[in-house]
Here is the input.
Amino acid sequence: MPTAADRVAQLLEDLRAHDADRYTLVQTLREAVLDIDASVTEEVKYGGILFSAARPFCGIFSYTRAC
Here is the structure.
């Protein structure tokens, strides 16, 4: 069974393959959130990355733009 880290890595890889600019933005935001504190964890939920530190506190959800 894939770990939370595996699922985050796969989500990021899929995003990178489809839209390099959005991938860069998500990675920059993700790094900023993870730098808040060593206790911050991440998991894929609701189609994005949900961050927790004892309880969920924010997420990054990058969807394609509508045309």
